[in-house]
Design a protein that fits this description.
mainly beta, Angiopoietin-4, nine-stranded antiparallel beta sheet, 322 residues, globular
Length: 322
Amino acid sequence: MLVNNTYICFPPLNLTGQRFSTRDRDNDDNAGGQCALTQKGGWWYKWCTYANPNGLYFLGTEPGNSDDTMLFSNQPLYLSGQRFSTKDRDNDGDSNGQCALTQKDGCFEIISQKFIKTKNKGIVSSDASKRTSKARSGIECSAVCTSDENCCSSSFDTHSKICTLFSTCCLMTEDAEGYSITKKTPEQGTFPADCSEFPDGTNDGVYAISVNNDCIHVYCDMVDKWTVIQRRQDGSTDFYRDWLDYKNGFGDPSGEFWLGNDNISNILNGKSYSLRFDLEDWSGERRYAQYAMFSIANEFADYQLTLAGYSGDADTPEVSPL
């Protein structure tokens, strides 16, 4: 980063093989301290003063990070819903007849639906068609969604027992204690795998993509169809967080955010990607660093980093390259 007295150094090839560190999980190579504590952010630290776009954010003329962006080109819950059929109301799935007539009794059609469930998350207020009802549990709320062909996701408040059904599958979420969200698993091909799959002419902005049988919202820089995984621009979001926050992601993709190590790892597993850092200081000077190869492992391996194939103009004497 091109700011007075900072140590954002490129090309950080020494970071290849490093495991991710946060203030509550130390994986750095610094024997004299814990980098994520002193630098106030999670990163693939080797030594504390090298290449950390997630560290302290300083405003104005203060030395420190000014503006940077990183880009790159929950177990499922099975639920069943039952719709009751009688001789005068046919809800079964038998195209050859009516079960309640042939069986001389009421019967259920078993509707199997695969859901993804997320706890302590709520759906941000949305214009998507929705309706509310009472439910005894999150499972009952999900079962109601299962039996409603117009419902694709549901939110359940454990305190008020209110079940909210939404017609859209992929909605923006936020941390919300006591809430749970269930979403029907998107059909294959419902959403693009990354921003490169959106058609030419698509505007920059936040879009839904498919990740690991789920959908998430990402910011797409559509000039070269980059998928943005991190942005710091005004210091409005705190990056001094624990492992779980960096695992799941935090912030707002239209502002400052970290996409989440699980999301990044799952996206990268789909195909080969490159990584680009766009850097700008408070005087408007811009630099960039790009890597032809970028991958990270899963959480079991502490999201171990692989970088190779550096190009760019950030490896200048002013920033003391590694």
